[in-house]
Amino acid sequence: MKNNIMTIFKKEASRIIHDQKLFFSAVIMPGLLIFVMYMLMGNFMGNMMASDEDHVYQVHAVNMPTSVSMMLSIPELNMEITDVPATDAEEARQQVADRDIDLLIVFPSDFDAALAADNVPNIEVWSNAARISSMEARNMVTAILDMYHQELAGAVFTINAPSADAPYGHYDLATDADIFGMVLGFMIPMMFLIFIYTGCLAIAPETISGQKERGTLGALLVTPAKRSHMAIGKILAISVFAMLGAVGSMIGMAFGMPSLMGIELGALLEFYSLMDAALLLLVAVSTTLVFVGLLSILSAYAKSVKEATAYATPIMLIATLCGLASTILGRVPAESVFYLIPIFNSALSISSIVGFEVNALNMALTAGVNLVATMICALVVAKMFSSEKIVFS
Amino acid sequence: MKEILDVRNMTKTFRLSKKQQQLSSSKSPVKIAADNVSFKSYEGEVYGLLGPNGAGKTTTMRMIATLINPDSGDATVDGFSAVKQPKEIRRRIGFLTNELKLDQYFTPNYLIRFFGELHGMSKDMIEKRREELFSTFGVDKFAEVKVGNLSQGMKQKISLAVSIIHDPTIVIFDEPTNGLDVVTSKIVTDFLVDLKNQGKSIILSSHIFSLLEGMCDRVGIIINGKLVANDTIGNLAGDCTLESKFFQIYEETTKEAV
Ligand SMILES: Nc1ncnc2c1ncn2[C@@H]1O[C@H](COP(=O)(O)OP(=O)(O)OP(=O)(O)O)[C@@H](O)[C@H]1O
Ligand SMILES: [Mg+2]
Predict the structure, then answer these.
(1) Domain with B249 in it: what CATH number?
(2) Does residue A3 sit at the B interface (CB-CB below 8 Å)?
(3) Does the beta-carbon distance from A216 to B102 stay under 8 Å?
(4) What pLDDT digit, counting tens, does each position of A146-202 carry?
(5) By C-alpha distance, which of A120, A280, A311, A278 is closest to A205?
(6) Predicted ipTM?
(7) Residues of A in contact with B102 (CB under 8 A)
(8) CA distance A388 to chain B (A)
(9) pLDDT per residue over B184-211, tens digit each?
(10) Mutation choice for A interface testing from B59, B100, B149, B167 by most A CBs within 10 A
(11) What is the DSSP string of B35-55?
(12) Which domains does chain A carry?
């Protein structure tokens, strides 16, 4: 009688494959949406804060003493300093505001004389926080001016002065990979959960409530096939396509992420190993199963696709909240208790994978807990299919 | 005469929601849809259930078909109990109503094979039956056209074929011509006559007197959940028509109730 599970499975699968709209919205759309979203966000952020290794910082300077301009001109700083007359200062400031140049440094005209006379001359460093390269240039310039100041004043002690370990006074130990992971850890789980959920939502109500609504479920119930087999056959079919959708989401993410981060696709492989991808797939698949289980229960309860979709909204909200888990907690917790809650554990696991903090036990817990949750859901659906109140309401 | 169906004291009550209570303008929170219903039907006979809307015809038939469980009582089909051996009953009955529909995304060939498999038939058996039924109904040409693209009459023929793919011992039809136009209705009634001629046992519900009068060997009249008459059509109608007899019984029963 295992046969009946296969019979039901094949029919539902064939239904989904042959309905282009259904197939598209469950399998293709989530990945495509992720890709397009990441692209758009990447473009948007790229425009806002362009930053790359070879960037030559455009610095305009008014009245800059040669002593300072020599310090700023060392090749390691990658700065192109353009002297502008004081009358053009206004215009240069506008260029910083428009993000056309990175920095404007304005010295008083009598800087050296004022120093000699023990006055306190002020140096203005105009920057634009909305442009990463502008902030980087500002940090370098103020650090160098600070050193200059300490030299002039006869320093008692220095902080982060250039040394053998940090020749340019750059003491931040975060690697590129760390920064990369931190940003993604906050952004990815939520979007990923939402898109996986969208894929499940496209097929579960259609396959279960839709058949209740159209009366085709009743035709099944007069056959000798077991109710539990019908439920399992349907859930299996929904799962297979929802999982394809999850794989599609991963592919969409892999191709969208580079443009989100403003790097090449190949550079992604420097940060993430195949192991990371495999773990992400494991989490994605186990999460998909939980979503399918929950949506199947709702769909069995609902009288129509419309009703099922309405019931599904709160789960979407929960998924969104879970997706923000690591942001709300402010960290990716290592304590295993957090990984005992389905969906919540998925969000944390995704954050930990992209944030390079994978913990094998917690990964295993996530996959295991989600699988058990799915099986419980399947049992509930099987029970519901045997209930006349559910089937003939 | 071999007894094929034995319905014994079947009762079914539904709990009504607040909304349903208002709709039925009744104060009672429960509805007795079938009230101690008992009747028998015999091999090769057509048994007709006659009753007004909401009388309990569908409820009774669903209990026989094991789609819902009776609160008390039982029905046996060919000796198998609906309550204790629902699977055995589902193997032996064909059930057709307008509420059970075929998936419009599939072809008749696909669907008939699908239901054949669910009935546990072998591939050879299914193919043999399929060819037989499709040629009887004259739907061979449409066997690979999606059900959704077929005409209403063609759909009805496919439904009929699917409902008897497993060659059931007894066929249960709940208002089989309800909502169909005259041409499609004729397809169904012709089919019923055909089945009867083949010696199949049939349970049929309807409120069309002529259909029942022309086909049934026995008739049960159900009003407000109670089977108020149950006899051969000759004994029941006597000299007058089934219609006038029905209204006579209907008036007597509802007067008592008032
Ligand atoms: N699932 C249910 N929940 C609540 N009440 C129900 C349910 N099913 C049937 N009823 C009620 O039971 C009564 C009998 O219904 P049933 O469908 O058996 O009547 P019927 O004789 O088939 O009528 P019709 O000619 O309209 O098809 C009706 O009053 C109906 O409202
Ligand atoms: Mg009815």
Answers:
(1) 3.40.50.300
(2) yes
(3) yes
(4) 888 877 777 667 677 767 777 666 676 666 556 665 666 667 788 889 989 999 999
(5) A311
(6) 0.88
(7) 216, 219
(8) 6
(9) 888 888 889 989 988 899 999 988 888 8
(10) B100
(11) EEEEEEEETT-EEEEE--TTS
(12) 3-46+175-391 (no CATH), 57-153 (3.40.1710.10)
